[in-house]
Amino acid sequence: MNLNYTLILGSRSARRQEIMRNAGFEFKVVSIDCEETFPPELDLHNIPKFLAEKKSRAYKTPLEENEMLITADTIVLLNNNVLGKPATINEAKATLTLLSGKSHEVITGVCIRTNVKTVSFHEKTTVSFVELSGNEIDYYIEKQNPIDKAGAYGIQEWIGLIGVESIIGSYYNVVGLPIHKLYSEMKQF
Question: What pTM did the predictor assign?
Answer without folding.
Answer: 0.92
